[in-house]
Amino acid sequence: MNHPLVENYFRIDKFPHIWCPGCGHGIIMASIARAIEKLGLDKDKVCVVSGIGCSSRAPGYMDFNTLHTTHGRALAFATGVKLANPELEVIVISGDGDLSAIGGNHLIHAARRNIGLTTICFNNNIYGMTGGQYSPTTPTHDKGTTAPYGNIDKPFDITQLAIGAGATYAAKTTVYHVNQMDKFIESAIKHKGFSLVEAISICPTYYGRKNKKGSVVDMMTFLKDSFVDHKVAEKLPAEKKEGKFLMGEFINKIEPEYTELYDGIIESLKK
Amino acid sequence: MARQVKFLQGNEACVEGALMAGMRFYSGYPITPSTEIAELSAVRLPKLGGKFIQMEDEIAGIAAAIGASLTGLKSMTATSGPGFSLKQENIGYAALTEIPLVIVNVQRGGPSTGLPTAPGQGDVMQAMWGTHGDHPVICLTPDSVKETFDLTVRAFNLAEKYRTPVILLTDEITGHMREKIEIPDQSEIEVYNRKKPEKNEDYKAYKVYDGDIVPKMANFGEGFRYHVTGLMHDETGFPSNSTKNAGILMDRLMAKITDHLDDLVDYEEIEIEDAEYVIVAYGGNARTAKSAVKKLRAEGIKVGLFRPITLWPFAEARMNEISKNVKDILVTELNYGQLKLEVERVVRGNCPVRFFGKANGEILIPEELILNFKEVL
Fold it and tell me: Which of A96, A107, B165, B205 is the most exposed place for a label (fewest CB within 10 A)?
């Protein structure tokens, strides 16, 4: 007997999923389902859109209107879906490479428009599907198969990038902090404008092995010990903030939403 | 609304045709010489309750249109040379996922940035082969403002009927030229809408049911909750690594075109009946050829014009038949001989196939075409 959440929100006949043992992506996928359940959304009115990569295979397992698009373009397809039918709750699932490298332009413009899309970034700091190449979020000095001598790039902070581009809801959490993730994804879906939840995932198979991060438990422990809520961090002395990463809800504000503005134009032309 | 007589650019006629065919979504990116299509769509669509969006780039322009089509809105994007190159990956996506869509390419001169405001016909082979992998292609090309209107309507209808992206390949000549056009009343326009599945049916998103050409297509949001992927898939729509399934899908996609050539292939013939010589021309350049044929006929030379209206699939059978009865075929186009390769292929040595063209951004004038034609006499 499957858990009711699995029965209700997943395409059970499509399991087992393709993700490696220890991959963090399943945790995020389940968190999205729990948020949808909590909000009581009509499954027929939910559309999940993804690009290409490990995380982008998630929609195939999820029992909604699902669209697995081309690499990097999930937000552009999703913009068309949402504008064409604003009644749909459109959730975009995208990896760090998909969202911030090949799809970076779509991310900043979807945020700028404040269109009512919810983007969940499964950030595992690596290109997993192609076998462990460094991505725009791979930390400097870390290794990937295409950074054999250490990465000399500076990583993106995807949450801050989205905020800079105009996102009206943005939060960061990790696959260790699951209760927080559920809460953030729920808030992001409820949010009217463009929302982003950056979920830090783990890739033990490629990123972990290449960078000697130890076991899956070691990688989860690292998330537990290294991430601190930005509001908590404010009150910490400098030496306690060293080596820590900030998480939490960074922005949550109301601004006019794109499809509502467009519907306003349509209404004004009827007069 | 009754018929209306207007003086329009080809690009404007394209929008008029699109709206009458039922377009309710346009997404694109500004590019010369196609921009008027976006501009007029931006003005007209919201008045009809439709949606227009200017996206951040050409790739997003086609991606949003595909997304919108999945919700049931007839969608279009328009572009020109460089933008057409950028859209190629998602043209293949729409072809494999069988999402109806119209893509307009108002061809301009040259490769790269080339000659943005000058005519060219250098994207003929790209329209067929531009996206990777084998895939079905329907490509229409008009030679006048009125035909731009008619073919835009037809492009939407074919996209819906065959569930495939349809390319309307115009050029800077027909796109920017103004002509008198009588726009028919909406009641005179034949509009084809995609077949939708019945509710509660055991819906398989990519299964072709008896009597249908393509799978029935449900709108996202109407209760079918199916999966769309650019991966090879089986008739449920979910990814499949089975080479057997991939073969079945590919055969079906290609057969949508090859089994319906009678419905798809369209061409115009002028004075072909008794012709000893044939000029093949299409799009804006066909106007030069029409004028040349008229002048040559006045001199008593038995020459005819064959004008493909459907560029892809090409009028293979008819072209071959004609080639059996003529001494020479001259293909003229604004490139270095792209359709000429196809004509040569289908003529199969029945008669010589010559080429005369230009790819410097100038149009051909009838006199230079006549001069070249006469070399064969």
Answer: B205
Which residue numbers of B have CB closer than 8 Å to A's CBs? 25, 27, 46-47, 49, 51, 53, 55-57, 59-60, 63-73, 75, 89-90, 93, 219-231, 238-239
Residues of B in contact with A266 (CB under 8 A): 46, 49
pTM: 0.98
Residue whose C-alpha is closest to residue B175's, from B145, B140, B139: B145
CA dist B16 and B189 (Å) reads 12
Instruction: Quote the crossing angle between the two packed helices A25-39 and A178-190, to the nearest 10°.
Output: 50
Which homologous superfamily does the CATH classification assign to the domain defined by A4-270? Thiamin diphosphate (ThDP)-binding fold, Pyr/PP domains (3.40.50.970)
pLDDT at B1: 65
Q: Do B59 and A73 touch (CB under 8 A)?
A: yes
> Is the CB of A109 inside 8 Å of chain B's CB atoms?
yes
Q: What is the pLDDT of residue A99?
A: 98
Residue tagged 């021309």 (tokens): B281
Nearest residue to B174 (alpha-carbon basis) of B70, B268, B287: B287
pLDDT in tens, B100-138: 999 999 999 999 999 999 999 999 999 999 999 999 999
> With an 8 Å Cβ cutoff, are A81 and B68 in contact?
yes
Q: Go through the domains of chain B in sequence order and give each one's CATH number.
A: 4-188 (3.40.50.970), 267-376 (3.40.50.920)
CB under 8 Å to A258, separation ≥6 — which residues?
A83, A113, A114, A115, A116, A193
- Cβ separation B55–A84 shorter than 8 A: no
B43: phi then psi, degrees, rounded to nearest 5: -75, -45
Crossing angle (nearest 10°) for helices B285-298 and B366-373: 60
Whether residues A105 and B223 touch (CB distance < 8 A) is answered with no
The pLDDT assigned to B199 comes to 77
With a CB cutoff of 8 Å and minimum separation 6, the contacts of A133 are A126, A127, A144, A145, A146, A147
* Complex-level ipTM: 0.98
Size of interface A-B (CB pairs under 8 A): 127
Q: How far is B140 from chain A (nearest CA, A)?
A: 25
B90: tokens are 């998602």
pLDDT in tens, A135-177: 999 999 999 999 999 999 999 999 999 999 999 999 999 999 9
> Alpha-carbon distance A36 to A6, whole Å?
12
Residue A123 tokens, joined: 């950030």
Task: Say yes or no: A51 contacts chain B, CB-CB below 8 A.
Answer: no
pLDDT tens string B307-319: 999 999 999 999 9
Q: Which of residues 118-157 of A touch B (CB under 8 A)?
A: none
Sheet strands side by side (includes A117-123): A227-229, A245-252, A169-174, A195-200, A117-123, A89-95, A46-50, A65-68, B227-229
Residues of chain B positioned with their CB less than 8 A from the CB of A77: 63-64, 66-67
A195-200 and A169-174 strand pairing: parallel
